[in-house]
Write a structure and sequence with these properties.
single chain; alpha+beta; OB fold (Dihydrolipoamide Acetyltransferase, E2P); 2 domains; 7-stranded mixed beta sheet; 5-stranded mixed β-barrel; 5 helices
């Protein structure tokens, strides 16, 4: 039996051992490489500052958020663990920025994937450790398939956030309880309809109340470009990811690109 005073350390050791059980992730093809730079400071689990003063928002992932003094905002579970992990991986290290889409956000932050000098893919490693979720955008989704694979492996192993109810994959009927937050929802698409160019995927017979996914015309175009007919998803069991909002009596989620929906 493990003495109580050593129990938390033992659990932590198990967590990190499991995280390193597989091969270190390497960044997939399709990115454009930029110059190397040294990491000066870790901001949180998915952003850091380079020695030249630029802030990098690591593309394709969302780590648990720290409040950082924001009024009315509490630290998410495992946010300090995610920050500590990124510090261990990247503080003082030389990294290469890799671009696969938009290179800067509205706040002036650099949007990039990061590769350490020894070839370790930092976004991939955070996903492998279960300390981040895949979080892509229509203009920044290169490498999404590999990131989703790494996330799925960590989720199956119940690593990190995937062992905390705060990050649980929701059922469609639970969506209304998690409004205004980024969530993963799994269920069957019961009906699909196109209304004036917008596609609605309904997860219940009563579309007034059932959880619904909406694809605006620009999203529909991206689905079609990828060879996917959104209306043909009717009857499919899927996992979707995005922000939940209320639309009258139901919860609704906007999808902007195909990588935000996975067939199960």
């Amino acid at each position: 039996m493990i003495p109580r005073r050593f129990a938390s350390a033992f659990v932590g050791l198990l967590f990190w051992t499991a995280a390193f059980a597989g091969d270190a992730p390497h960044i997939p093809a399709g990115f454009t490489r930029d110059a190397d730079a040294k990491v000066a400071e870790i901001i949180d689990g998915d952003s850091l500052t380079l020695a030249d003063g630029r802030t990098v928002r690591m593309v394709g992932i969302q780590a648990p958020k720290l409040a950082k003094g924001r009024v009315g905002f509490a630290d998410w579970p495992l946010s300090h663990e995610a920050e500590a992990a990124l510090r261990d991986l990247a503080a003082g290290e030389t990294v290469t920025r890799l671009y696969g889409g938009a290179r800067q956000d509205r706040s002036g932050r650099v949007l990039a994937q990061l590769e350490r000098a020894d070839g370790l893919w930092l976004e991939g490693e955070m996903l492998c450790r279960g300390l981040a979720r895949v979080y892509t955008f229509a203009d920044n989704r290169t490498g999404a398939a590999e990131m989703l694979r790494l996330e799925a492996e960590a989720r199956a192993a119940h690593l990190g956030i995937w062992n905390d109810p705060f990050y649980a994959v929701r059922k469609p009927e639970e969506a209304l309880d998690h409004l205004d937050s980024f969530e993963l929802v799994e269920g069957q698409i019961v009906d699909a309809a196109r209304v004036r160019g917008t596609v609605f995927l309904n997860f219940g017979a009563d579309w007034h109340r059932a959880f619904t996914v909406r694809l605006r015309p620009e999203a529909v175009a991206l689905f079609q470009a990828a060879g996917i007919d959104p209306l043909a998803l009717k009857g499919q069991q899927v996992r979707v990811r995005g922000y939940l909002r209320r639309d009258h009596e139901r919860a609704e989620m906007d999808l902007t690109h195909p990588e935000e929906i996975e067939k199960l």
